[in-house]
């Protein structure tokens, strides 16, 4: 299948993340990554799929600076990085607004500035009216929206997502996929998104990267040709088209072959 670069409203002007021949060996001798080449340009949303234990989350930790590659080069040219984990990681005693303000608070922002940033982020993720709710009063989807809003207060150039919607039901997951695409074209960040769902990867992304089993390496890369605009980030009905199914099938085959 021939592929084409997805037309999006953001303009690719520079590479924010550049992994060249990256390897990761842990102290116990486990080789998680070997020879990984991966780039994320400004204006790209790149999803990574691969079998469990192939080092997908390790890629994110290296990109965020939480881990350092054992070999190769991992260059990150983004001063502001957002990170959304598999769990919402909210403080249970803090309200939605107070949780969203947390990173700005830790960054030493004034009360007025962090309140303004939090209110804007809460509005962007559709949680206006829930500012005073505690996490226990929220649905799983709303907790993930709160986590996303918290990172949005950083105005990230590069957003890292570690399977943030994996524990949600299908309808909530699809709704949050739509919201994330809207934020992507509006906020113009670059994204690196880890998921086990091939269909989610294809729907969200401008590019899908397939990794092999451990030690993880990149075996295929697919450009996603479905258009995005600010008015229509991506038509949700694209999921039901033959073209979408064909690309999902190709990515799935590459995933199976890379796991052999």
TrEMBL record:
Protein name, UniProt field? Phosphonates import ATP-binding protein PhnC
Q: What is the superkingdom listed in this entry's lineage?
A: Bacteria
Task: Give any GO molecular function from the UniProt entry.
Answer: ATP binding
InterPro entries recorded for this chain? AAA+_ATPase, ABC_transporter-like_ATP-bd, ABC_transporter_ATP-bind, P-loop_NTPase
Keywords assigned by UniProt, alphabetized:
ATP-binding, Nucleotide-binding, Transport
Which residues does the UniProt record annotate as the domain ABC transporter?
Answer: 17-238
**Species name for this entry?**
Luteimicrobium xylanilyticum
């Amino acid at each position: 299948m021939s592929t084409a670069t997805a037309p999006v409203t953001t303009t690719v002007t520079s590479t924010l993340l550049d992994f060249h021949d990256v390897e990761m060996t842990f102290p116990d001798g486990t080789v998680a990554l070997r020879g990984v080449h991966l780039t994320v340009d400004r204006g790209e949303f790149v999803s990574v799929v691969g079998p469990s234990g192939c080092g997908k989350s390790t890629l994110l930790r290296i990109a965020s600076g939480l881990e350092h590659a054992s070999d190769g080069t991992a260059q990150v040219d983004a001063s502001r990085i957002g990170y959304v984990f598999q769990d919402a990681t909210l403080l249970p005693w803090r309200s939605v607004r107070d949780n969203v303000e947390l990173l700005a608070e830790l960054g030493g922002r004034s009360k007025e500035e962090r309140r303004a940033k939090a209110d804007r982020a809460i509005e962007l993720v559709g949680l206006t009216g829930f500012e005073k709710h505690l996490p226990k009063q929220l649905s799983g989807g709303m907790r993930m929206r709160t986590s996303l809003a918290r990172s949005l207060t950083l105005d990230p150039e590069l957003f890292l997502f570690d399977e943030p919607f994996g524990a949600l039901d299908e309808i909530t997951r699809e709704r949050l996929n739509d919201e994330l695409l809207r934020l992507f074209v509006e906020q113009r960040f670059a994204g690196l998104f880890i998921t086990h769902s091939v269909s989610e990867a294809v729907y969200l992304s401008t590019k899908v990267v397939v990794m092999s089993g451990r030690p993880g390496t990149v075996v295929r890369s697919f450009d996603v040709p479905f258009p995005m605009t600010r008015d229509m980030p991506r038509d949700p009905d694209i999921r039901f088209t033959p073209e979408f199914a064909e690309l999902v099938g190709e990515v799935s085959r590459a995933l199976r072959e890379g796991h052999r």
